[in-house]
């Protein structure tokens, strides 16, 4: 039977526990999560174990990245199941703070990222989001002081923002992206997929199918505007309300004209009923 990881809930306890993990100069990997863990998260943990001797997983539903109209209160929380999954993977430590441990009374400092955070993708629809993410992840990096941190590529703009932040602020952590884990029908795994009705779940894989079709058209020489317009029409026809379907430079997230302008990433966000889905693929 797997041994449960140590769970800590205060910063002093976390510091003591991480210091103990670093005995004999062991390397430490951090996997930041908001819980409601699925196989995509498990893949992050497994990559972390390959990149470091010890693994810390944080579970914290971060209120500062949710707008008042979003699902902070109803976001899925599955603590017992999460601990069981992490125990099965041999995780060493779970950092599970209360909100007041992360944002004590009088907290008044925020990280305001620019660059990839202002690329006109997620930030156009969730202007509050990356400030909240950068602030909490900046705190996690300084609390845990990991050698590496693992994030999924499904949240690709977030990955670029946090990679830039770690480099710009000399935080001493290498940010590593892990490939998106998908259901058999192509839907990117997400904790929010539980919100989908049965009918919506059947329609949801259309996002990935359309992106792959559009990528094929781009590789065949079609211009980006035509390929994206055709893809947007197909996504709307499938019942989604589209926020964006765009091709950007894979490193800077700047708009890009053709394959010869550099490595490309196609990114999409769309609503299906009350659920907002995001995805991306390399082109």
From TrEMBL:
Keywords: ATP-binding, Cytoplasm, Ligase, Nucleotide-binding, Pantothenate biosynthesis. It catalyses: (R)-pantoate + beta-alanine + ATP = (R)-pantothenate + AMP + diphosphate + H(+). Its EC number is 6.3.2.1. GO terms for molecular function: ATP binding; pantoate-beta-alanine ligase activity. ATP binds at residues 34-41, 152-155, 181, 189-192. Pathway: Cofactor biosynthesis; (R)-pantothenate biosynthesis; (R)-pantothenate from (R)-pantoate and beta-alanine: step 1/1. InterPro entries: Pantoate_ligase (IPR003721), Pantoate_ligase_C (IPR042176), Rossmann-like_a/b/a_fold (IPR014729). Its main location: cytoplasm. It is an enzyme of class 6 (ligase). GO terms for cellular component: cytosol. The reaction proceeds by a bi uni uni bi ping pong mechanism. Homodimer. This is Pantothenate synthetase. It comes from Bradyrhizobium uaiense. The gene is panC.
């Amino acid at each position: 039977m797997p041994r449960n990881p140590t769970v800590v809930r205060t910063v002093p306890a976390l510091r003591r526990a991480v210091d103990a993990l670093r005995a004999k100069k062991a390397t430490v990997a951090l996997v930041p999560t908001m819980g409601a863990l699925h196989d995509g998260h498990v893949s992050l943990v497994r990559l972390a174990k390959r990149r470091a001797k010890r693994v810390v997983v944080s579970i914290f539903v971060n209120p500062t990245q949710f707008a008042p109209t979003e699902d902070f209160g109803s976001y899925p929380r599955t603590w017992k199941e999460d601990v069981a999954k992490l125990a099965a993977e041999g995780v060493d430590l779970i950092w599970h703070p209360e909100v007041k441990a992360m944002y004590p009374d009088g907290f008044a400092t925020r990280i305001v990222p620019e660059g990839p955070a202002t690329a006109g993708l997620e930030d156009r629809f969730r202007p509050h989001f990356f400030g909240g993410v950068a602030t909490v992840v900046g705190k996690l990096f300084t609390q845990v002081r990991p050698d590496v941190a693992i994030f999924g590529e499904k949240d690709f703009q977030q990955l670029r923002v946090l990679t830039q932040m770690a480099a710009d602020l000399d935080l001493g952590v290498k940010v590593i992206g892990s490939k998106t884990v998908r259901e058999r029908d192509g839907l990117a795994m997400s904790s929010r997929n539980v919100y989908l009705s049965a009918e919506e779940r059947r329609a949801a894989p259309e996002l990935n199918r359309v992106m792959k079709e559009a990528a094929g058209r781009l590789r065949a020489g079609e211009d980006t505007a035509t390929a994206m317009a055709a893809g947007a029409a197909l996504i709307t026809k499938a019942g989604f309300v589209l926020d964006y379907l765009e091709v950007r430079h894979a490193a800077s997230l700047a708009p890009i004209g053709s394959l010869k302008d550099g490595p490309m990433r196609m990114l999409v966000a769309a609503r299906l009923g009350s659920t907002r889905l995001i995805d991306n693929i390399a082109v």
